Amino acid sequence: MATDRFQSAVFDEYLEKAGRHAAHYLRRLPDRHVGAKATREELIAALRAPLPEHGDEGGEVIDLIAGHVDRGAVACNSPRYFGFVVGGATPVALAADWLVSTWDQNAGIYAISPLVSVLEEVAAQWLLDLFDLPRDAGVGFVTGCQMANFTCLAAARHAVLRRAGWDVEADGLIGAPRIHVVASAESHITIDVALRYLGLGTRSVLRVESDGQGRMRADRLRELLATLDGPTIVCAQAGNVNTGAFDPLREIGEATRAHGAWLHVDGAFGLWARASAAHRALADGIDLADSWATDAHKWLNVPYDSGVAMVRDAEAHRTAMTSTAAYLVQTRGAERDAVDWVPEFSRRARGVPVYATLRALGSDGIQDLIARSCARATQMAEALAGEDGVRILNDVVLNQVLVRFDDDDDVTRAVIDGVQREGTCWLGGTVWQGRGAMRISVSNWATTEDDAARSVTAILKVFRGLRGR
């Protein structure tokens, strides 16, 4: 593509073509086979070629890419996709994200994009209002909960070492006072990864016993804290990735405050329970924490990638993240430079779809979205539990359902594989307390009662087929 053709007419042509492909995909989404149909080898054969010397025509490239989406992509935004905890972009979020790509703003500092800076500033305040967290907390828009946990724990590392008279940003960790890191036996892997990134490591993490639903035992935490002296960070969880269960956050918060420890809560999807009157009690006491991590690309249903880090001590947050350079035009006034709150220097304006979705749904709409997802999870659990040989392993308190078939790992895996191939819905497997299980996660705004019922029918059809019925 010659640069002299890089004009508005070319943009019109390519965007119109991409729009047609996108509309075709979205029209088919409610009824299409949810899983991918093509193998890696088939996709490689269709897409691999020597790098063109002169470049292919752009419209043909768009057609080529879009032409393989139906067979090569898993429909993660399908209303019957229940694998992992994956939302599906709402119409307004998708449209806002198109604008983000069109504007192509570097959201790192205010001077580059005042509009994006203000949109993210307002969205940050709305999130604190929605979750009823300290309104002066620091907020950063990151790629996902992995980096949200990293950001919050970086702030925690700064704060607990500062109290001990150590400047970790300037002096590093060599010679620093030892930080005790305490986490549940059921903490998410992203906590461990964040600790690796921060130089704190995972081998010395002190694990607290959890109960049958994966909740940290507060009594065991209190016993452990009584043995510790020095800087301490406790990591709790709002929404177990398998069961959806919440740690007893009020008890944990009171124990950590009494000990002078920093409490971080990984609320990748569970923090959104704070937005639902019917589920808010699950997160009782979460406001006692010092930092909170969540994803917007889960239950807020904005496009990937979109996570949020929130820290009560905004100065600790900013000090742990900020970077400066002589050539940058950085604000010292009320304007918001995103680089002060996130690990990235340059990044896309991922807070814009968050703003658009919050404004379009409002608090009532978000509450309805959470409640409907939880209702569909309960619907599926109750329908599956009525079948002989099917067992629900967890208390369905939120949007997660664990299912086991014939109390047998091989049968359970076979049902999962069969459902994925059948294509009505897509869900994955896990191991829960030593037993294989099917894991159903409901977090898409478009999932209806009919979607849930159709999916249950497909799951039971596969199971009955394996039983010869």
Short description:
The protein has two domains: 73 residues; 262 residues, Aspartate Aminotransferase, domain 2.
Q: Strand fraction band?
A: 5-15%
Q: Globular, elongated, flat, extended or rod-shaped: what is the shape?
A: globular
User: SSE order in H/E notation?
Assistant: HHHHHHEHHEHEHEHEEEHHEEHEEH
Determine the fraction of residues in helical runs and give it as a percent range: 40-55%
**What structural class do helix, strand and pairing data support?**
alpha/beta
Determine the CATH superfamily of the largest domain.
Type I PLP-dependent aspartate aminotransferase-like (Major domain)
Count of DSSP-assigned helices: 15
The CATH architecture category of the largest domain equals: 3-Layer(aba) Sandwich
The rounded distance between the terminal residues' Cα atoms is 59 Å
| Spatial order of strands in the largest sheet | 1-7-6-5-4-2-3
Q: Unreliable segments (pLDDT under 50, ≥5 consecutive)? A: none
* Structural domain tally: 2
Q: What gyration radius follows from the Cα positions, in whole Å?
A: 24 Å
| Biggest pleated sheet | 7 strands, mixed
Overall average pLDDT: 96
Q: Which CATH first-tier class of the largest domain would you pick? A: Alpha Beta
Total strands: 11
CATH topology of the largest domain: Aspartate Aminotransferase, domain 2
Family: Belongs to the group II decarboxylase family.
Keywords: Aminotransferase, Decarboxylase, Lyase, Pyridoxal phosphate, Transferase
Protein name: Aminotransferase class V-fold PLP-dependent enzyme
Cofactor: pyridoxal 5'-phosphate
